[in-house]
Design brief:
Multidrug efflux transporter AcrB transmembrane fold, Alpha-Beta Plaits, two-stranded parallel ribbon, 10 helices, 6 strands, 66% helix, elongated
């Protein structure tokens, strides 16, 4: 039986997705993560300077006087900044004042707090637990909503998306903090939406056309939902791109993670989400209602 072009494209994208999963896992295990202060511990100092000072000026000055990277985040009020650095004993409040004195004649340290490594370890464990619980809840919902073959395709697509985003941050050694973890959890929800739409369409076609070949059913489901998927993903990408461009450094990591997650999630819903159920021999009989027995 001759395969359609759409079916061939699904199969090729599934092979590519499998390669992405394997290579992503290898990257994560070989490179690890550049954990942020939320997980490793460090010092968070809030200062007030003259309102005309910009973040780039602060970053350049601190880089000249420190061997470690100092994160500069706006506190939301003009002239107020949050400085984050990892070494607890690297800079005291007095050091910060003397370092920033050439930039501003009025330097005021509002507060300074230390995040210990024990708290950071607790956050890492809770973050991993949050991902695990989210995946288990998704598995439970999908198994209830669909037959397990369709549920497994959607779940593998979610795993594919999360692993890809994590591997990108591992490869680039970008700081992984609670904001990135929040983005990963958001990606789970977004990717699940696409997978459910396609899986629901596959189920409807299996019930409506039980004699149609499974590969044709999956391709027809992708074709029927393709325009909806592209419009939804496209408009969301525009919003995330605007957030990336205008959100500044504090939202850069979150925006990058969301941008990558939405793109790869759209691909995985079409490839992994449809090909794995087909590989597991999903059939129309799995969704046929059992006949009601009649007693004489």
């Amino acid at each position: 039986m001759k395969m359609s072009k759409l079916t061939k494209a699904r199969y090729l994208s599934s092979v590519l997705s499998l390669m992405i999963i394997i290579s992503s896992i290898g990257i994560i295990f070989s490179n690890g993560f550049n954990w942020g202060l939320d997980f490793t511990g460090g010092v968070v100092t809030e200062v007030r300077l003259d309102s005309h000072i910009k973040a780039t000026e602060l970053s350049e000055l601190l880089a000249q006087h420190s061997e470690q990277e100092v994160s500069v985040i706006s506190a939301g009020e003009s002239g107020r900044w949050v400085l984050r650095y990892s070494q607890v004993d690297a800079k005291s409040s007095t050091d910060i004042v003397s370092v920033l004195a050439p930039l501003s004649g009025n330097v005021e340290v509002l507060n300074s707090s230390i995040v210990g490594p024990q708290i950071g370890q607790e956050l890492a464990e809770q973050g991993g637990l949050a991902l695990l619980v989210a995946m288990l809840c998704v598995l439970g919902y999908l198994s209830f909503r669909f037959e397990w073959r369709l549920a497994s395709g959607a779940l593998l697509a979610l795993f594919h998306d999360v692993v890809f985003v994590l591997a990108f941050f591992s490869l680039m050694q970008m700081e992984f903090n609670l904001t990135i973890l929040a983005a990963v959890l958001a990606i789970l929800g977004y990717s699940l939406n696409d997978s459910i739409v396609i899986a629901d369409r596959i189920r409807e076609l299996l019930i409506a056309k039980p004699k149609m070949a499974v590969d044709e059913v999956c391709s027809a489901a992708v074709k029927a939902t393709f325009s909806r998927t592209m419009v939804t993903s496209g408009t969301t990408l525009i919003t995330v791109a605007a957030l990336w461009g205008m959100g500044g450094v504090p939202l850069e990591g979150f925006s990058i993670a969301m941008f990558l997650g939405i793109m790869i999630g759209t691909i995985s819903s079409i490839s992994v989400g449809t090909c794995l159920p087909e590989l597991l021999k999903v059939k129309a009989e799995h969704y046929q209602l059992a006949p009601i027995s009649q007693t004489p």
